[in-house]
Design goal:
This protein is α+β, with helices and mostly antiparallel strands. It contains five helices and twelve strands.
């Protein structure tokens, strides 16, 4: 599942015709449309037959009754990175999380570390940075968080070269 991205969880069956409750965990609900394909954590390939975004109900091809739909309850839906890039449109200064993970954090001439995870909090997302070894040897923390804020902390994101230029991130590291 390394090339797959988690996007939703299937809930309980609703009604008698094979509909399931859908819990989307993606910034791109537009990828849930008729004909879209997903893989489950149990390696099942599913294709959407119907999706009702107002009621968060989904129905898959060949799952036409409540008994077959129940077999999908609590499974996770995944899409490939390629599918995601094709079906999800980014705006200016937006990036996929999988493109940001492993980017080097640079501030002026210093390499501060590498992005290892992204955490979603109510007001903003935070980049979890694994501090570079030479800075850890100087007594700085092994990890720190930087707000993903293009107006204050993030100057430039270059996903092709896997680098992120920051402002004030070194101050955050020193005070962590």
């Amino acid at each position: 599942m390394n090339d797959k991205i988690y996007v939703a969880k299937l809930g309980k069956a609703v009604g008698l015709k094979g509909h399931l409750r859908l819990f989307i965990d993606s910034d791109f609900p537009e990828q849930f449309k008729k004909g879209a394909s997903f893989t489950t954590n149990k390696k099942l390939d599913l294709t959407i037959e119907e999706y009702n975004p107002n009621r968060d109900l989904i129905k898959f091809v060949d799952y036409d009754d409540v008994d077959t739909a129940k077999k999908l309850t609590n499974q996770f839906l995944y899409v490939s990175i390629e599918q995601t890039k094709q079906s999800c449109n980014l705006k200016d200064n937006e990036h996929f999380w999988f493109d940001i993970i492993d980017c080097e954090i640079l501030e002026e001439s210093k390499q501060l570390g590498k992005v290892v995870e992204i955490h979603r909090y109510p007001l903003t997302d935070y980049l979890e940075i694994k501090t570079s070894n030479d800075l850890v040897e100087q007594g700085l923390p092994k990890t720190f968080l930087v707000p993903y804020d293009m107006s204050s902390y993030i100057v430039e994101v270059d996903v092709e070269n896997k680098t992120i230029k920051t402002n004030k991130a070194y101050e955050i590291l020193e005070n962590s």
